[in-house]
Amino acid sequence: MIFRSLLCNVVIGACLFAQGPGSGNGPGKPTDAGNSGKGDTIQWITTGSDIDQALLKTGKAKADFKSRVDLEDIQVWLTPSLSDVTPNPAKFAKITKDNGLHYLSAVAEPSEHTMGGTLHLRSGSDDSRSYAAPLPLNIKVSGGNGGEQPRADVTDVVSSAGNQKGSITGGQTIYVLGSGIGPDKPEGLELDDHGRVATYLADTQVLFNGIPAPLLAASGNQVHVVVPQGVSSDSTVDIVLTFKGAVSTTVTLP
């Protein structure tokens, strides 16, 4: 593998971390009744394809959703590949349990290329906890790049220490394997504006229960990732990868 020699076998105290961010008993915390911590607290009513078609046809769309618990300070977030789509509102101060449908509208700037990524409803606090399953959006605009939407196929997830499969834990480094999941020319890690390892590298992003993961390296068939600490207390983890707007199927691991 291309990056086995790069930061290979580095495990950042994987089994020594206590519960990650997001534990507690405040509104909308993962320990609340009805909240499994894996992003199923808020249920999407509108489908991604409905939003895609509306944005493509009119440049505007509405996304309905409903929550199973009372929540506060919920942020609307889209992957960087959907920077041309603006949500309104960008944040909900409060969402009430089973109190009818809530909705957000999205406005897309005119584009001549296919746009794709995922829409999230997550905690506005530092833990970035995702309360809804990522909603894939693929707005297939004609012209520009043209052709079919590229595919991002994830075939396997293994640890970088011994290539073992199975459960993962916060702080562990892993390889996401597949095809069309990163750039043709391998790219090494970059630092963001805060001096931290970037979570968006060469148009690639990997989300764990909606939390962006630090990326150590990326290529077309392998992405080297650090599992975010925020999933340490979760029983299962949903992994979704995006590359240049293409969204992979979800891989669920213990």
How would you describe this structure to a colleague?
The protein is mainly β. The chain folds into two domains: 42-139, Immunoglobulins (Immunoglobulin-like); 153-253, Immunoglobulin-like, CATH 2.60.40.10. 4% of the residues lie in helices and 37% in strands. A five-stranded antiparallel beta sheet has the order 9-10-15-14-11, with no helix packed on it. Mean pLDDT is 77; it is low at 1-37 and 143-147.
Helix % is: under 10%
How would a crystallographer describe the biggest sheet? 5 strands, antiparallel
Q: Give the strand tally.
A: 18
Low-confidence stretches: 1-37, 143-147
Short descriptors:
254 residues; mainly beta; Immunoglobulin-like; 2 domains; 5-stranded antiparallel beta sheet; 18 strands; 37% strand
SSE layout:
Layout: E1 42-44, H1 48-58, E2 60-67, E3 71-78, E4 85-88, E5 91-95, E6 102-108, E7 115-123, E8 135-139, E9 153-159, E10 173-179, E11 187-188, E12 204-208, E13 211-212, E14 215-218, E15 222-226, E16 237-243, E17 246-247, E18 251-253
Antiparallel strand pairs: 1-2, 2-6, 3-5, 3-7, 4-6, 7-8, 9-10, 10-15, 11-14, 12-13, 12-16, 14-15, 16-17, 16-18
Quick summary:
It is built from one helix and 18 strands. It has one helix at residues 48-58, and strands at residues 42-44, 60-67, 71-78, 85-88, 91-95, 102-108, 115-123, 135-139, 153-159, 173-179, 187-188, 204-208, 211-212, 215-218, 222-226, 237-243, 246-247, 251-253.
